[in-house]
Predict the structure of Glycosyltransferase family 39 protein.
Amino acid sequence: MAFNKTLSLSCFYFLCGLLFMGAFILFTYHSGSGSLWDIDEPNNAQALKEMFAQHNFVVPLFNGTLRVAKPALNYWLMWGGVEAFGMNSWGLRMGSVLVGALFVLYLTLSTRRLIGAGPALLTGLVAATILHSQIIFRAAVPDPLLILFVSMSLISYLRAYQFPEARSFNILLSYAAMALATVDEGPIGFLIPGLIIVVFLLLRGNLPYLWKEGRLQWGLPLFLLIGLPWYVAVGVETHWRWDLGFLLRANISRYNAEMQGHQGPFFYYLLTIPLALLPWSIFLPQALRPLWLKRKQLIQQYPVDTFLLSWLLVWVIFFSISATKLPNYVWEAYPPLFIFLGIRLYQALSGEISFRHRGLYTSLFALFSVGAALVYAGAVIVPAKIPPLGSLYYLGLPYALSAVFAALWVWKDQVGRWLITLTAGAAALTFALMTYTEPALNILKPSYFMGEKIRQYQGDNPYSIAAWHWFQPNFLFYAGRGNMILHRTKHMAELQNILRHNPRPLYLVLPSRDVPDMRRSLPDNLHIQSIYVSYELYNHENLTLLRISPQSAVSLQHRTPPG
C-alpha cells in the first residue's frame, strides 16, 4: 500500500483533524434551525426541562410522571449544550453533533493500526458522509452516545486482542465504554457487545481468553464503578420503580412486542441498511466480495475480519428477531461496513486492486436510479400526499448528478476524482435537506409556532394547556413552562372539569374538524378564541389552537399580541 508507506504519522494526524472539523461542520450545518422532531426529541427535551424545574438531574420525568424510557447520560449531554446555547434546538442538539464528530475521529484513529492509515481515513470519510449520519448526529437522542461507546468498546477489545503490548489499557477502555453505553441506553450497552466478543472467541476456539487475558478482575469492578451509581441513585429516589419499569417496559416489552407501530419483517434491516449507507452502499458488493473469497481461511487466518463480521451479524440478527424495529436500532452495526468499504475504496484508490469498470458502472447506475426515484417521489408523490409541502424534486439531484459525473471520471480512469465527486454529492444532499427541505417541513410542525403564540398572549401571566383527541410531545415542550402539566382530554366531562377549577386561560389544541362541536359543547360563559390554525405533518390534518377563558376575566387577562 504505497499511500501507507508515504503517509507520515504527523500527516495522518493532520488529516484526522481535518476530517474531524469537516464532520463537525457538516453535522452542525443548520442543526438548530428547525424545531424538534416528534416524538423522541421533544420527549427527551421535555424530560430535561422538568429536571431543570425540579433541580433534580437524577430522576427523569415527563409531564409530571416518571419517564422510564431512557437512562440519564443523554440528558446530561443535552444539559451541557443547553448551558452553552440555551433551551432550544441548538442547545439540545449540539451534544449529538460533537459526539458524531468525535465518533468519526475515534473510528479513524483507532483503526489505523488494524487496517492501515489510508483505509482508516477513508473509513472515517464514509462514516461522516453516509445519509444516516446526517440524521442521527443532529438529533437530541441517545443514539450518538451509544454509537460512540459501543464502537469504542468493541474496537478497543479487538485492539487488545491484536496488540498484546497494549492489552491492559485497551481492555479496560472497553469495559469503561460498555459502562457508559449502559448509562446511556441500558443493558444493550454491555449485553450485545459482550455477546459479540463471546461469539468471536468461540469461533476462534479461544474462549478461555475471556478470563485468562480479559482482565476480568479489573474490568468488572471498573464497569460497576462507572455504570452502577446512577442506577442505584435513581432506584433509591424512586423506591426502585424507575429501574423495574425500565427493565420491563423499555427493554423486555419492547423486544417481545412491537411498540408505537414500529414493526417489520425479519429482513427489515436488509432493506434499510443499504439506504442508510448511501451513497457508499453502492460499493458494498465489491467491499464484501473479498470476505467471501477467503471464507475458508477467514476464522483462523483473519481475526480482524472475523471480529468485524461477528459484530455486524450478531447486532443485526439480534434486532431482526426483535418485535420492535427501527432503522436506528442497527446503527451500531455500521462501523464494520465502514471499515470494509474504507479498505476496498483504498485498494481502488491506490491501484492495489482496481474496480472493474463494469462493476463501477453498475454501482453508479444504482446510485443514479436512487436519485431518479427521489426526483420522482419529490415531484409527484410528496405533493400528492402532503400538498402544503410542495415539490421536493431537488433532493434526488445530488445522487443522480454525482453518479453521472463520477461515471465520466471512471471513463477517464480518474479514480480519485470519482471518489471526490461522490463525497461532494453526499455533502450536497445534506445542504439541500437542511437549506430547503427542513424550513419547509418546519412550517408543518405547528407546536413551535403555537408556543410562540401563547407567549405573545400571556407574557409572564399564568395559564394552562390541554390537548383534545390529539397529542405530540412537541406541544408540551414548546407550549408549556418548566414542569407544567399538559392535560390530555378525550371526554367533554374531563375538559369541563378542568375549566371549572381553572380561572386562568386554557390553551387547547385540537383537530380543526372538532372546533365547531367544541364551541357548541362548552358553556356560554366562556370566551373562546381561535388564535392559530395550521396543517400538521404527522397526522396530515389541520390543527387549531383555542384560547379559552371566563367571560368575566377577558378584560383583565386578554392581551392582544404584538403585530
